[in-house]
Amino acid sequence: MPADTSDHAEPPRQRGAYAKGIARRQEILDRAIEVFAERGADRTSLRAIAREVGVTHAALTHYFGSLEELLVAVYQESTAPERQPSSPADDATPVEMMIESARINRAIPGLVQLYSTLVATALEEGHPAARTFATDRFTRLRGRLADIVREQQADGRIRKDIDPDAVAALVVAASDGLQTQWLLDGTAPQHEALALLDRLLRPES
Amino acid sequence: MPADTSDHAEPPRQRGAYAKGIARRQEILDRAIEVFAERGADRTSLRAIAREVGVTHAALTHYFGSLEELLVAVYQESTAPERQPSSPADDATPVEMMIESARINRAIPGLVQLYSTLVATALEEGHPAARTFATDRFTRLRGRLADIVREQQADGRIRKDIDPDAVAALVVAASDGLQTQWLLDGTAPQHEALALLDRLLRPES
DNA sequence: GTCTATACGTCGATAGAC
DNA sequence: GTCTATCGACGTATAGAC
Question: Cα–Cα distances in Å, from A144 out to A11, A118, A147, A172, B11?
Answer without folding.
Answer: 20, 21, 5, 11, 46
